Amino acid sequence: MLRYAFKQVDVFAEQAFKGNPVAVILGADGLSDDQMAAIARWTNLSETTFVLKPTDPSADYRVRIFTTVRELPFAGHPTLGTCHAWLEAGGVPRGEEILQECGIGKVRIRRLADRLAFTAPPLLASGALPAGQVDAICTALGIDAQDVMDAQQVDNGAGWVALRLSSPELVLRITPDYGRLGHVPVGIFAAWPATSESGIAEFEARAFIAGDAVPEDPVTGSLMAGIAQWLRHDPQAPDGYIVNQGRMLGRAGRIHVDQQGEDIWISGQTHTLVDGVLSIPLMG
User: Fold this and answer.
1) What positions constitute the catalytic site (predicted)?
2) CA dihedral defined by 120, 52, 219, 268, rounded to 10 degrees?
3) Is the per-residue pLDDT at 282 higher than 80?
4) 80: buried, middle or exposed (CB in 10 Å: 19+, 13-18, 0-12)?
5) All domains in the chain, ordered by first residue
6) At what angle do helices 76-88 and 221-231 cross, to 10 degrees?
7) Residue 165 buriedness (CB in 10 A; 0-12 / 13-18 / 19+)
8) What's the pTM value of the predicted model, to 2 decimals?
9) CB 106 within 8 A of CB 59
């Protein structure tokens, strides 16, 4: 029987069971690709991560990220959840920041007072979406093209495209036709009206991934990192804001976005809710 330390971490929520869970298997160097994929299918979460020894000597650890159907070079809530699990298990970073090695390279992570934060990686694909693709997505979402204020590629490893819609109420009303949505992950978002009470801008967002075991992702750090890279070129966009996500799934995700110089930091709270051992029978 092979035994691996296992944690399930709730990410991007201030209350337990209100964020996006990620399964983290520590010390996973002995697992094969097929075993990792099988474990990810079994956990049946949006992502499962495997912590390995780094191949880059400057990194603190390496992570591989699996959905139920494929491996991802990068994902947001798995980045924070994996870092949380690694630190909790006794991981000691080489410097003040934690350096995570993953499929897109190294990602910087910081410990804040009550949150972890990662730097939004550069976009692998950006720019306006073709009108035909926007029309097809609108059909799948059941909205009119006039409800779309802008639409961009925001791919930082997960393949996201994003639509900025006319109102947060519309974001919350949508019921996607996943059969029409295709295999490109689609994010939608809109700004809430400014209020003097909160003092910070807030957005509402949702994320759809047709074909995955979790077709609507509860809280999505990679999408928000991609959107933040897009909005940094919008002179009307705030330097700091909060994204709410997951309401339609009974979650209460809160993603903090802050631009500091050339860096965009994506942060949220992380909580271990399952802490145990994963046992894998030896196959004779």
Assistant:
1) 47
2) -60
3) no
4) buried
5) 2-115+269-280 (3.10.310.10), 125-263 (3.10.310.10)
6) 120
7) buried
8) 0.96
9) yes
Nearest Cα to Cα of residue 231 among 193, 197, 203, 269: 203
Residue positions annotated with a catalytic role: 47
CA distance 106 to 54: 10
CA nearest to 186, candidates 147, 230, 155 = 155
Grouping H, G, I as helix, E, B as strand and the rest as coil, residue 10 is strand
> In this structure, which amino acid lies at residue 34?
D
How far apart CA 7 and CA 46 sit, in angstroms, is: 15
DSSP secondary structure letter of residue 145: G
Return d(Cα 98, Cα 93) in angstroms, integer: 5
pLDDT of residue 283: 61
Cβ atoms of residues 18 and 251 within 8 Å: yes
Q: Using one digit for the tens of pLDDT, what is the confidence trace for 24-59?
A: 999 999 999 999 999 999 999 999 999 999 999 999
Q: How far apart are CA 136 and CA 180, in angstroms?
A: 8
